[in-house]
């Protein structure tokens, strides 16, 4: 089976799934919800002497080539590969699967993270407890 057909099959399987999303997107949304629940229980104002606790969702990226990246997320103290076809993850030749990012004038990992967030917004509200998603969803290159 050629790579183009395999990518098309992956997209069809997502549409047929019960949730209408890929396993990677489900993992990402699960981590976002976990952080939102934790942050909602924390005090809203920081007082002197009080420890300010906040939980973040960090997506780690590693470079495969100059324009291709892999994404990972930590779930229960384990680094898991984060493949979200809705956000641009694809199979490529020579087993270099990943996210393709070209230009856009700013950080390629941030561009891919924004695509992930855009897909997650279709299923959950990312502004629960915050004005914008950027304070608690971050991208880091490893």
Kindly summarize this structure in a few lines.
The protein is α+β, with helices and mostly antiparallel strands and 142 residues long. It contains 3 helices and 6 strands; from the N terminus they run ααβββββαβ.
Provide key terms for this protein.
142 residues, alpha+beta, 6-stranded mixed β-sheet, 6 strands, globular
Description:
The chain has 142 residues and is of the alpha+beta class. The protein has one domain (3-141). The protein has helices at 3-16, 23-41, 108-121, and strands at 57-63, 68-75, 78-81, 89-90, 98-100, 137-141. Strands 1, 2, 3, 4, 5 and 6 form a 6-stranded mixed beta sheet that branches. The chain starts with a helix and ends with a strand. The relative contact order is 0.19. The mean pLDDT is 84.
Q: How are the SSEs ordered, and which strands pair?
A:
Elements: H1 3-16, H2 23-41, E1 57-63, E2 68-75, E3 78-81, E4 89-90, E5 98-100, H3 108-121, E6 137-141
Parallel strand pairs: 1-6
Antiparallel strand pairs: 1-2, 2-3, 2-5, 4-5
């Amino acid at each position: 089976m050629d790579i183009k057909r395999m990518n098309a099959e992956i997209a069809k399987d997502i549409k047929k799934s019960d949730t209408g999303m890929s396993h990677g997107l489900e993992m990402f949304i699960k981590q976002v919800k976990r952080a939102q629940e934790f942050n909602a229980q924390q005090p809203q104002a920081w007082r002197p002497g009080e420890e300010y606790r906040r939980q973040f969702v960090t997506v780690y990226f590693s470079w495969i080539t100059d324009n291709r990246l892999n994404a990972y997320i930590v779930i229960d103290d384990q680094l898991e590969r984060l493949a979200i076809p809705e956000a641009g993850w694809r199979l490529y030749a020579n087993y270099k699967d990943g996210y393709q990012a070209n230009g856009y004038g700013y950080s390629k990992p941030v561009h891919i993270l924004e695509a992930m967030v855009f897909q997650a917004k279709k299923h959950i509200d990312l502004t629960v407890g915050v004005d914008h998603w950027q304070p608690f969803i971050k991208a880091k290159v490893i």
